[in-house]
Amino acid sequence: xxxxxxxGEALIEFMRLPDEGALVLYERGxxxxxSNAAIAAARQGASVGYLSxxxxxxxxxxxxxxxxxxxxxxxxxxxxxxxxxxxxFVQPHASGRNFSYARRGSAASLYGPDDVPADAIADARVxxxxxxxxxxxxxxxxxxxxxxxxxxxxxxxxxxxxxxxLNLWSLEEAMAxxxxxxxxxxxxxxxxxxAELLTGLSDPDAILDHYLGxxxxxxxxxxxxxxxxxxxxxxxxxxxxxxxxxxxxxxxxDSFAGAFLAYFLETxxxxxxxxxxxxxxxxxxxxxxxxxPIPRRDQVWSD
Length: 303
Prior knowledge:
This protein is an alpha/beta fold. The protein has one domain: Ribokinase (UDP-N-acetylmuramoyl-L-alanine:D-glutamate ligase). It is built from 11 helices and 14 strands. The chain has helices spanning 33-43, 58-70, 118-122, 131-135, 138-154, 171-181, 192-199, 204-212, 252-267, 270-285, 297-302, and strands spanning 2-7, 11-16, 26-31, 48-55, 72-73, 77-80, 87-93, 96-102, 124-130, 157-161, 187-189, 218-222, 228-231, 236-239. Helix 1 crosses helix 9.
């Protein structure tokens, strides 16, 4: 049995480096929120698989090599001949990052509900996806819903990160898509700034109540430098951020979600899973890029 399956789109990242005269250089990396979460979970010792599609191109080969190296099964990742693997370009600046996407018509954007492997989902303990996965395309949005329906029918837990990207679709579309999944979700990972837009609420407990109201058993409200507030129907607790040396926030929320799922499945303890996941997120923000700085299990447990 697989511990965690994640569903979405992995991308090739091109990070713009500081200019050297007229020469503009980019460093190649990897991204995609659900792929980041999968790798974070695998680095904590969970058995993890990915559901998506890539092109039969160099970028698709590089992503498969990445998952192989990280111990993430790509057995159910489809290769689409003639369709490209998506990429994005990052322009860092003092207050954050600007993203430009080159992923229209990508292999993953053509992934649809008929591509979702029912047997693999039934054999997993958790299926994790996100609002960003839904935003990729109408067919991927339908695939996310189909995956959640299959998971619910088979007793597999459904995990959903609200990840909101308004450069991919409108707030109204994002809200409608979330309404499709939240009644099926057992574990929800909202971020406070995104939740305020999606729900119209600003009070953390009101946000937690909102998501618990759909039937979720665990809601982990990610609050950046203020840590995480985790709620169940019976309790809620604040987990402070772990010590870090913040350099780059990319992928921190993804790594928290992946690590939380890994440790919750291992321990059954919401508080302990949150504390360990906070360490993983702190390590992620202490380096550059979405994947390279994600701590491994021995680093997390050695502190």
